[in-house]
Structures are given as C-alpha cells and as structure tokens.
Amino acid sequence: PAQHFDLVAEQEIVRAKEHLAAEIAPQLHELILRAEAAVEKVERRARAAKNRVQQASAKLEQQQPSSRSTTTTGPTFIPTAFRPTPALSAEATKSLPDVSEAQLNQLRAQVEAARRRKTMLDERAKQLESEADILAACQ
Predict the structure, then answer these.
(1) What crossing angle do the helices spanning 10-63 and 101-138 adopt, rounded to 10°?
(2) How confident is residue 118, by pLDDT bands cut at 50, 70 and 90?
(3) What are the BP-aspect GO terms (predicted)?
(4) Which long-range contacts (CB under 8 A, 24 or more apart) does 87-96 make?
C-alpha cells in the first residue's frame, strides 16, 4: 500500500489548532470545575470522617476506665479476650449497681460494636485522605 502525504500550509495548521482550542475550551473549563468540586467534596468528606473518628475516639476514651493509659497516637484496641480483668475490692463491689449477666454481655457487645465501628471509621478516614492526596496531586 502506498502512503500519501498531504502538504498543508502552516497557516492552516495554526487556524485548525485555534478552532479546536476554541471548540474544546468550554468543555475543558466545565470538566475542570467539576473536578475541583469533586476534590472539595472529597476533602470535606475526609475532614468529616476524621472529625467523626476523633469524636468516637474521645467517646471511647471517656467510656473506658481512667486507669488505662493511652499513647500519644490515640487509644489502643485490645480484644476483650486479652484484657486482664481488674480485681475489685469488696467495698467497690458494693457500690456497683446490680446488673444481670445478660445486661453485662449486652453492654460488652455494644462496646465491641463501637470499637469495630471506630476501626472502620479510622480505615475509611485513611482511605479518604489518600484519595484526597491523589486528587490534590492531580491538580
């Protein structure tokens, strides 16, 4: 097969580029605006998720006994099976409200559910932050 090359004047090439630029510019502008709005939305979601995680962490810290130490990186999740059970004195036991074993198990389940939710929120916040970083790098 023979190849054909058309010779085109440079002026025609310049006009064609200008025509394409004029035709594409509004669409590019619209896409840029949409991308910026999407980035802002992701950043807002990341901030909101991070705030929810911080609030959940603070709430969990308040619900946990004050004798438990926390690190500067936040509370550490220790599964119930590995936590030592604190010994209570007879006097301390008297001041505790009467709680049935079923109620106690229900409360433990709620605490575990809250911890799992916190872990999920931590992971989601990290994911959103990395997405926001990627989007910011694309700008």
Answers:
(1) 160
(2) confident
(3) attachment of spindle microtubules to kinetochore
(4) none
